[in-house]
Fold:
Amino acid sequence: MKTLNDFNFADKKAIIRVDFNVPLNENFEVTDATRIQAAKPTIIKVLEDGGSCVLMSHLGRPKGKEDKFSLRHIIEDIEKIIGCEVRFVDDCVGEKAEEAANKLENGEILLLENLRFHEEETKGDVAFAEQLSKLGDIYINDAFGTAHRAHASTTIIAQFFGKNKCFGSLLAREIESIDKVLNNSEKPVLAVLGGAKVSSKITVIENILDKVDHLIIGGGMTFTFIKAQGGKVGNSICEDDKLDLALDILKQAKNKNVQVHIAVDVIAADAFSNDANTQVIDVTQIPDGWQGLDAGPNSLAKFDEVVNSCKTILWNGPLGVFEMENFAKGTIALGNSIANATKNGAFSLVGGGDSVAAVKQFGFEDKVSYVSTGGGAMLESLEGKTLPGIEAILK
Ligand code: AMP
Structure:
């Protein structure tokens, strides 16, 4: 795996695909700069070696050139975080961009305008990728969040750099973390899969069964499994067309010697609302009119024991409707269990959309080993796919 350390960037222009797809408020101010922070080590390495950086990213999903999606809005944030001036060019290809890149001196940063102002970017257009490639000597991909897309700047561009391409430090850490869980893991290995639906996680579950010793199935998925085994789930979220699939997963798990843990009790509510009446109830005995919205205390005690018996832990998806305070306890308790196991030497990886949000919201970010920056990219990695953006660098 070629990383930054395989290169000396002195007198070199690095063209870096970063993920600066940051949230902006109505005044076009950055409300969460995590992704800019995450790109800092790669940028600093190039500058400290004595090279220069051409940064390219997308922002949002513009239809053509739309000023509200201009990367101009985030220049000051980048300057503050990196600690040096950022030049900007209002296109990412063509004469203007080439002139700006040519003028760039060692130690300087140039930010290109939003890649997605050109539809060729998402189409993976080869000629467009070739135009981008003219702006740098070495290509670095540091955007895990888009590594599952075969776009011009994330994948296609790599073919124009021969051996002069590598992973940035963020992308390298993502790859190493996933590898540590899926391939080079210390046993016992646990995956906690929560979230709303079995259907969105099915490929992950099937791939992961070959890799883990324990599987905790939590969140809304619980009820499809409980109903499939004959339990009463009341009005809980349940995919009736996935009952056979749930039974098949349990059978596969048994054949593969994977111990599956599902909630034994839940916090049931009489409405999907934070103010609903609640009761703690056996997960197989939920009356009509009630729905399970969080894991119950006996389930959490059981999960805590499993988590703390494992040396490698993957967490994807919340245990309950954590967006509502009254149904966040299960997710918080699981976070605490994982934090404790990590403190005692386990490797823990949190990845995929909502669990990352939960980890941040409840302050577990520094208490787990690694929090992934890519939602879709993480899920596809867990499904066992090789991401095109990663493959392009390895070629
Ligand atoms: P996912 O994106 O698949 O990881 O799903 C995350 C969503 O699952 C969150 O918005 C949670 O509110 C939701 N969720 C978790 N547990 C439940 C549940 N018991 N009933 C309904 N939704 C749930």
In short: The first strand starts at residue 13 and ends at 17.
